[in-house]
Write a structure and sequence with these properties.
It is a single chain. This protein has 132 residues and is mainly α. The chain has a single domain, classed as Four Helix Bundle (Hemerythrin (Met), subunit A), CATH 1.20.120. 76% of the residues lie in helices and 0% in strands. It is built from five helices and no strands. The longest helix is centred in the middle third of the chain and has 30 residues. It is elongated, with a radius of gyration of 16 Å. The two termini are 15 Å apart.
Length: 132
């Protein structure tokens, strides 16, 4: 059986590191135009890594809650990012990334789905004691 909490933690570590790195590459040379657009992804990464670290003990309901909160924040940020990106694409704005704007949208959509999955995994985890 899949250990949902462990999978959620691993995803949080991976995306907690990958998201700020990808955002740095995406906005390289243009991040000072609107720093919060870059810094929010750094905060997102820090919260995911912190939540994963806090949930390292499977029986810790507080750690699980912190991980779920980090995923919730990531989901909210991803929703806003997708909506803003969609509107920017419709108005013909080009993303600062070194790849096509449509690809950036697809990557954001994939990341959003992973964030929702991470949240679902974190909140649906059951301890062995509570499942028997």
């Amino acid at each position: 059986m899949i250990d949902r909490l462990r999978l959620s933690r691993r995803l949080a570590y991976v995306f907690g590191v990958l998201t700020p790195i990808a955002e740095t590459v995406r906005r390289w040379g243009a991040w000072w135009e609107y720093p919060p657009a870059y810094l929010d992804d750094v905060l997102l990464g820090a919260l995911l890594v912190g939540g994963a670290w806090a949930a390292r003990r499977p029986g810790s309901s507080r750690g699980r809650a912190l991980l779920a909160a980090a995923w919730g924040f990531a989901c909210g940020m991803a929703y806003y990012s997708l909506a803003a990106h969609w509107l920017a694409m419709r108005s013909g704005q080009v993303d600062p990334a070194p790849i096509p704007t449509g690809w950036v949208f697809a990557i954001k959509l994939f990341g959003s789905l992973v964030f929702v999955a991470g949240l679902v995994l974190a909140v649906s985890h059951r301890d062995d004691a509570s499942s028997s």
